[in-house]
C-alpha cells in the first residue's frame, strides 16, 4: 500500500504507531509523554516553592522639573526600577517597569511591583523615568536616583537637550 511504509496493522495515518521506523518521535506514546511532562512540571514547581515570588511595591511621583505644557493625549511615561549592582560592562537588570499612557496631569503617581527576593542587602538600585511625546523621548531623569532612599520617591524629569 503506498504511503504506509513502516505503519503497523490497524494504525491510523498520523498516529504514533510505527513512528520509530518512519523516523518520527520514537516509541513513546502520548500517555508516556504526558507523564514525563507532568513529572518535569512538578520538579520545576518544587524548585520555585523554595523561593516563591513575594510582591513588593515602590510608589512615588513623576514631576516636571520646570513647568511646561505637554500634549497629554499623546504623552507616555515609563518608570523603571533597575539593579545597578551588575558589572560595569553589563547593562543594568530591569526589576520592574510601569508604562502610563495619556496622563491627566503632573505630578503623576506610579507604583512599581517587584519581587522582594530580587533586592539584596548592599545592592545598588535606581529608578528611572522617561516621558515620550508623540513617540519621541522628550524628558527624562538625570543621574542616579536611589530607589530606596525615601519612602515616596519623587522623580523630576527634565528636557533632553
Backbone structural class: mainly beta
- The helicity comes to 10-25%
Mean pLDDT comes to: 82
Give the tally of β-strands.
7
Number of helices: 1
- Tell me, what's the shape? elongated
Primary descriptors:
161 residues; mainly beta; Immunoglobulin-like; seven-stranded mixed β-sheet
Concise structural overview:
This protein has a domain of 105 residues: Immunoglobulin-like.
Description:
A 7-stranded mixed beta sheet has the order 3-2-5-6-7-1-4, with no helix packed on it. The radius of gyration is 27 Å and the shape is elongated. It has 161 residues and is mainly beta. Helix content is 12%, strand content 35%. The protein has a domain at 55-159: Immunoglobulin-like (Sandwich), CATH 2.60.40.2990.
Question: Which secondary structure elements does this structure contain, and how are they paired or packed?
Answer:
Layout: H1 30-49, E1 55-64, E2 75-83, E3 93-101, E4 108-115, E5 125-133, E6 136-140, E7 154-159
Parallel strand pairs: 1-7
Antiparallel strand pairs: 1-4, 2-3, 2-5, 5-6, 6-7
